[in-house]
Write a structure and sequence with these properties.
Helix content is about 35%, strand content about 20%. It contains 12 helices and 14 strands. The strands form 3 sheets. A 10-stranded mixed sheet has the order 3-4-5-6-9-10-11-12-13-14. It has a two-stranded parallel ribbon with strand order 1-2. Strands 7-8 form a two-stranded antiparallel ribbon. It is globular and about 70 Å long. It binds S-adenosyl-L-homocysteine (SAH).
Length: about 375
């Protein structure tokens, strides 16, 4: 058993949303409003040291030193891509590492974070899946990624903000780690936290249907769904969770999510695999599934990794597929590949998954991978 860096007798405040932090300060004999002061220091000033929090009473600061900490994952390496993309390898505990990516674009900056060490869902075209699953990240480790990136890039607010968008598109299946992902999302959206707009935090899921219904009750971030195939026979092969939650069920959950959250649309991710899912007939089949719905399709050119059996669809096949969808009234765009010179593109994040109990879908999914 490895000891996570974040586990110690002290509570890592990065793991607490506002309600959790209020309960924590009350437990220390303080008034709940102290939590607001703490959040401002942590997320607006970027303070990680209680001694810097000069408007807190000396005795309270001493209590915090004793019982609390503000601790982020440790940076092992940072790589810079020619296109400005940055990738960090972060150490989560003695044995495990995850990767995090920052993608600057004109007018916005997107941070791509991880929710698990490895992944259990076994999608056949994803390099994270090849590694198996080790463990869920804690809420502190998830929000710690955003804090750390803000620390490295600058804590800005309003128009000055450098990280304007956060996407759960790194390693792991966020809805399989619901319990920890939810408080982390709350801190991202909280105006005393990172104060991100709900449309600028995107949770990407392979399609854990029960958790989509649960999310619809609990929060209102943007949802992206890894569809990747227009029918069950093919999706069963590419995204094996489909055998448990087939496309029809998944789409019903998506439309429910939009209704419940008054959302604008759902993004359907579709990785373009040469000769597998990129034919004109498949584009038309996909259009029939999504036509008339508040849906957008984001085509992702497949990113290679060692040992994969797949190849990227040629650019003409991708644009033909996109044009066919658009012509049928389904909005489709192609995701620009970023950071591929440093293996930072979608599906290339590998981190360091040691000690893995190579858990694959169908073996232990309920007991281990989906700890909601
Ligand atoms: N577990 C979440 C987040 C995964 S990563 C999910 O399944 O949605 C974000 C996106 O990258 C997903 O749509 C995923 O299917 C896609 N992806 C995975 N491997 C890829 C690869 N090799 N090339 C391109 N996209 C890939």
């Amino acid at each position: 058993m490895v000891t996570p860096i974040t586990s110690s007798a002290r509570t890592n405040l990065l793991g607490l949303d506002r309600a959790g932090l209020e309960a924590f300060v009350v437990g220390l004999g303080q008034k709940p409003f102290r939590a607001r002061q703490l959040m401002k220091w942590i997320y607006k000033q970027g303070a990680s040291n209680f001694s810097a929090m000069t408007d807190l009473a000396r005795e309270f600061r001493a209590l915090l030193e004793q019982h609390a900490e503000i601790r982020t994952p440790e940076v092992v390496t940072v790589q810079h891509s020619a296109d400005g993309t940055r990738k960090w390898m972060l150490r989560m505990d003695e044995a495990q590492g995850i990767e995090m990516v920052f993608i600057p674009e004109p007018g916005r900056g997107t941070l791509c974070i991880s929710s698990q060490v490895g992944c259990a869902l076994d999608c056949s075209f994803c390099s994270t899946a090849q590694q198996g699953f080790n463990r869920n990240l804690t809420a502190a480790e998830i929000i710690g990624q955003v804090w750390l990136a803000s620390h490295e890039l600058g804590f800005g607010t309003g128009e000055e903000r450098i990280i304007s968008n956060v996407v759960f598109m790194g390693m792991g299946e966020p809805l399989a780690n619901y319990r920890n992902v939810l408080p982390a999302i709350q801190v991202m959206l909280d105006d005393l936290g990172f104060d991100l707009s709900r449309r600028r935090v995107t949770l990407s899921t392979s399609g854990l249907v029960p958790q989509i219904y649960r999310l619809a009750e609990d929060c209102n971030v943007a949802l992206a769904v890894s569809l990747h195939a227009p029918n069950d026979a093919l999706r069963d092969q590419l995204v094996p969770i489909n055998r448990r939650h087939p496309i029809k069920e998944l789409l019903e959950a998506c439309w429910h999510y939009l209704d419940a959250q008054n959302g604008r649309s759902i993004t359907f991710e579709y990785v373009m695999l040469d000769g597998v899912n990129d034919s004109p007939a498949q584009a038309l089949e996909l259009a029939r599934l999504l036509r008339g719905r508040a849906a957008k399709v984001n085509l992702i050119p497949f990113n290679m990794f060692p040992g994969t059996q797949y190849r990227r669809s040629p650019p003409e096949a991708i644009s033909r597929f996109r044009d066919l969808l658009n012509a049928r009234g389904v909005i489709a765009t192609t995701r620009r590949t970023r950071g591929d010179d440093i293996d930072a593109a979608c599906g290339q994040l590998v981190g360091r998954v040691r000690d893995r109990t190579t858990v694959r879908l169908g073996q232990k999914l309920h007991s281990v991978a989906i700890e909601a």
